[in-house]
Amino acid sequence: MADALDEIKWNTDYETGVEEIDEQHQILVNTLNEANKLLAKECTLENLQNITKDLLSYALYHFETEEELMQDYNYEDAHPTDFNNHMKQHRVFSAKVVEVRDSLKAGNLIEREELISFLLNWLINHINKTDKKLGIFLQSKNVK
Fold it and tell me: I need a labelling partner for 27 at 20 to 30 A (CA). Which of 11, 14, 65, 72 fits?
C-alpha cells in the first residue's frame, strides 16, 4: 500500500533564483521529508515535539533571512502588497506551529498526516506563490 504522504522531491520548479533562499528551502523540504519518515515509524509525543521545535527554529531562521533581504533591497517600498502578504504568511505559519507546540505540551497528539500535510502544503504554496515573487524582485537587483 502506498503511503498517503509521499516524499517531496526537490526540483527546479521550486527554485526562486536566489541561492541562499533556495538552499534553505531545500533544507526545509529535506527536514519535512525526514520528519514524515520518522513519524510514519513512530508518531510519539516526543517525536512530534522535537520535530515542531526543530522546524520552528529553522523556519524562523529562514524567515529572518528572507526578511533581511526584503529590508536590504527595499522590497516594501517597491511592492508593498506583496511585502505585507509575505510578512503576514510568515507570522501566520509561526503562530500555527506555536499553536501545535502548545497543544503537544498539553499532551494532545496531532495526527502525522495532519501535521505533515499542513507543513508541506504551506511550504510548497509559499514558495510557488510568494517566495518566487521575492526571487524575481531580488534577481532584478542582481542578487544571486
Answer: 72
